[in-house]
Design brief:
about 20% strand; alpha+beta; 7 strands; Alpha-Beta Plaits; five-stranded mixed beta sheet; two-stranded antiparallel ribbon; about 30% helix; globular; about 160 residues
Length: about 160
């Protein structure tokens, strides 16, 4: 895995998206096959390519909890560090996962409230910040399979 990660690092070395891409690649490298042909991650239990069977995509429970707390007046500083993060304005940082990331999808996500977006087409991820009140709107955008907290790099 170290060799393939080295090749991937060189591939993305020329892009400013490396800090966004590399943690996702590491998370994907830890994936394993799930029963019935599905896929699951060793992390949050939600795989970026997980198909949704309902009209609304899966929102990670910790994001739902943070959004509710922020809507009820919790300080954004409570989420300055950790798995779920919020900026000073109270917006949550999210990864929006889709099987196919297109300009039309990014525009639809922006209309639904996603700001400061960065798309990584090869990983099927659009990263951005969303107001807690707009979290459900992101999940309702056609083509979205999951909304999760970003995977942050950690030092050991």
């Amino acid at each position: 895995m170290a060799t393939s990660m080295h090749r991937i690092s060189r591939l993305f070395a020329a892009t400013p998206l490396l800090p966004l891409v590399l943690p996702g690649l590491i998370a994907i490298a830890g994936c394993s096959a799930a029963p019935a042909g599905g896929v699951r991650s060793s992390g949050s239990g939600l795989h970026p390519a997980a198909a949704t069977t309902s009209a609304i995509a899966t929102i990670a429970p910790e994001l739902r909890d943070a959004a509710e707390a922020l809507r009820q007046g919790a300080s954004p500083s409570r989420y300055a560090r950790g798995r779920v993060r919020a900026d000073a304005a109270g917006r949550l940082q999210v990864y929006v996962h889709a099987a196919l990331v297109t300009d039309a999808l990014v525009q639809a996500l922006q209309r639904a409230g996603l700001r400061q977006t960065s798309a990584v087409v090869t990983l099927g991820v659009v990263q951005g910040w969303v107001a807690p009140a707009n979290l459900e709107s992101l999940a309702r955008v056609p083509g979205v399979s999951a909304v999760t907290p970003p995977t942050y790099a950690v030092t050991r």
